[in-house]
Design goal:
The chain is 25% helix and 33% strand. It is of the alpha+beta class. It has 4 domains: 113 residues, 3-Layer(aba) Sandwich (Rossmann fold); 70 residues, Dna Ligase, domain 1 (2-Layer Sandwich); 244 residues, 2-Layer Sandwich (D-amino Acid Aminotransferase, Chain A, domain 1); 67 residues, OB fold (Dihydrolipoamide Acetyltransferase, E2P). The protein is globular and about 65 Å long.
């Protein structure tokens, strides 16, 4: 049980609602169960059979697939929290995890928010305001504007003063969204427009700022923990430099580029940033590190006011359960450890399993997982939203699992990673597994000398085996007893049924040979996946070249350019910005 003290009155967290989905929801359910706290999961219609709803103590339907009508529906989430009797809400990461209005709404409903106070979320959620705050706290900063900018001209002027390239960033951005680079003055307008558009689309805030762009730094973050009494420690660094489109793929702790002196300096800077907003939970301060013979400097990037996807590598090396610690802080407990108690033992590496095809520029590949087998053995951990065959829904983030390995040193961790990757089996969809197997043969990765430019620089030389979906034949019917979930009035109940049925409990299988990839008739440019049209880049009658971008499609939280297959004239445009399309729909015709 977790004690909660409010206004001098001590009571107990009996039940916690998890306002999220996927593997982070599973992670929190398991932490709550170990703490003796009842867990309440929520699920949208396509997540009805998902693992969080199956293993939580209670589960409630919150609406249809679109996140705005389910996982982002504040009123619905609070209504379910009240109806279930939950005394606290854990937001996980993504969705509303860094929403100050949601945190306030939870607190105003008389429910405990498991996270930092809303003012801290607000301050650090604004990249402009956070830069001001941490600069006053003495944290090193990349040269940039102190205020938001209002035109592409200001991007050009900044570049002329500080030198190109420059980065244009959405003030409320994060996770690679609302981020664009201008290599010279001619690219200023495009970068300004893209960063502003993504900021408005993803975060409801189109304001942007500009800063000097570091083309090949390392991305290193510090895990901080601070309770409501002001006790604070850092748990060391995680190196998150291997990314695609500014979203992380591989994380490790400790960083191959950090020594104890640098760790202490970065840790002190991170704690100063947390102190600047009186932070009161677990969080992460991210830095860019310029490391080389001529320089070894770090600069503040942003603060993530929540638990991070990559938190397991820190847990494996420090032995501290970050999820449980955040829950205990929210319950009013004092940190049970000080900085002198923290030590780092061994080395841990995490790779993110995304439903993406690395041979197609990491294009999203959602769908039915027909076979799923996790690796095991010493030093291997898997945090997943699957236990077996199931679905990676096309409506949400492509991340469905994380493979974490630990060794006595980096060499052993790499060996265990190779062994675990060889054992991991996922069929039915394309995944990032072949990419991780390939980088284990790359000298730059193995030596630990990589930077954020790794994917762009090394992708062509990596020997990535073509992603395979495997066999998708039918599972034979068996007569057996099995436990299923039955939904009544939006709440799930577990019952046993007997008879012939699909033992997977999953959705209907695709027939052999079916695929999500769009077929293309002559001249018809079709949607490669379900998504939303962000912008149409051409007009009817316009001449286009082969491989020229025609429109931008957003799917699974990622923007992709849909390109012409041939040179010709745009004869018909069938879509508009904001329109939802399905895989295979004709978007534009080129003759």
């Amino acid at each position: 049980m977790v004690l909660l003290q409010v206004g001098g009155i001590v009571r107990v967290f009996g039940k916690v609602l998890i306002a999220n989905r996927g593997e982070i929801s599973v992670r929190i359910v398991r932490a709550l169960r170990e703490m003796g706290v009842t867990s309440v999961a929520v699920y949208s219609d396509p997540d009805r059979e998902a693992l969080p709803a199956r293993i939580a103590d209670e589960a409630y339907n919150i609406g249809p697939a679109p996140a705005a009508q389910s996982y982002l529906d504040v009123e619905r989430l609070i209504e379910v929290a009240k109806r279930s009797g939950a005394e606290a809400v854990h937001p996980g990461y993504g969705f509303l995890a860094e929403s100050a209005p949601f945190a306030r709404a939870v607190q105003e409903a008389g429910i405990v928010w498991i996270g930092p106070h809303p003012s801290a979320i607000e301050a650090m959620g604004s990249k402009v305001e956070s830069r001001r705050l941490v600069a006053r706290a003495g944290v090193p900063m990349v040269p940039g504007t102190q205020d938001s900018i209002g035109s592409a001209k200001q991007v050009s002027l900044f570049g002329e003063e500080h030198g190109f390239p420059v980065a244009v960033k959405a003030s409320a951005g994060g996770g690679g969204k609302g981020f664009a680079v201008a290599g010279d003055a001619s690219e200023a307008a495009g970068a300004f427009e893209r960063a502003s558009r993504e900021g408005e689309a993803y975060f409801g805030d189109g304001s942007v700022y500009v800063e000097k762009y570091l083309p090949a730094p390392r991305h290193v973050e510090i895990q901080v923990v601070r309770d409501r009494l002001g006790n604070a420690v850092h748990l060391g660094e995680r190196d998150c430099s291997i990314q695609r489109r500014h979203q992380k793929l591989v994380e490790e702790c400790p960083s191959p580029a950090i020594d104890p002196t640098m760790r202490e300096a970065m840790g002190e800077a991170a704690l100063a940033a947390a102190e600047a907003v009186a932070y009161d939970n677990v969080g992460t301060v991210e830095f860019l590190l310029e490391s080389g013979e001529a320089t070894n400097e770090f600069y503040f990037l942003e603060m993530n006011t929540r638990v991070q996807v990559e938190h397991p590598v820190t847990e494996e090396v420090t032995g501290i359960d970050i999820v449980k610690t955040g829950i205990r802080i929210a319950a009013g407990e004092e940190l049970p450890f000080s900085q002198s108690d923290i030590s780092w033992r061994g080395h841990a590496i995490e790779v993110r399993l995304n439903a993406e095809d690395p041979t197609r520029d990491f294009a999203p590949s959602p769908g039915v997982v027909t076979a799923y087998e996790e690796p095991g053995g010493p030093g291997v951990r898997v945090d997943s939203s699957l236990l077996g065959p199931g679905v990676v829904a096309e409506s949400y983030d492509p991340l469905f699992a994380k493979l974490i390995v630990r060794g006595t040193d980096r060499e052993e961790a790499l060996a265990r990673l190779g062994r675990a990757l060889a054992e991991f089996r996922v069929e039915g969809i394309s995944t990032t597994l072949p990419f991780y197997r390939a980088i284990l043969d790359d000298e730059t990765f193995v030596s630990g000398t990589y930077t954020t430019g790794f994917v762009d620089e090394r992708m062509q030389s990596l020997k990535i085996q073509s992603a395979t979906t495997g066999e998708t034949g039918e599972i034979s019917e068996k007569k057996r007893a099995r436990e299923v979930e039955v939904e009544v009035n939006g709440k799930i109940f577990k019952v046993k049924v007997f008879g012939n049925d699909d033992v997977s409990g999953g959705p209907p299988r695709r027939r052999r040979g079916e695929t999500r990839r769009a077929s293309r008739s002559e001249g018809a440019v079709q949607a490669p996946m379900q998504g939303t049209i962000v912008k149409v880049l051409v007009e009817e009658g316009q001449e286009v070249a082969a491989d020229e971008p025609l429109c931008i499609l957003e799917a699974m939280k990622m923007e992709s350019e849909v390109r012409s297959q041939k040179a010709g004239t745009v004869s018909e445009i069938r879509v508009r910005a904001g329109q939802t399309v399905r895989s295979g729909d004709t978007l534009i015709s080129v003759e």
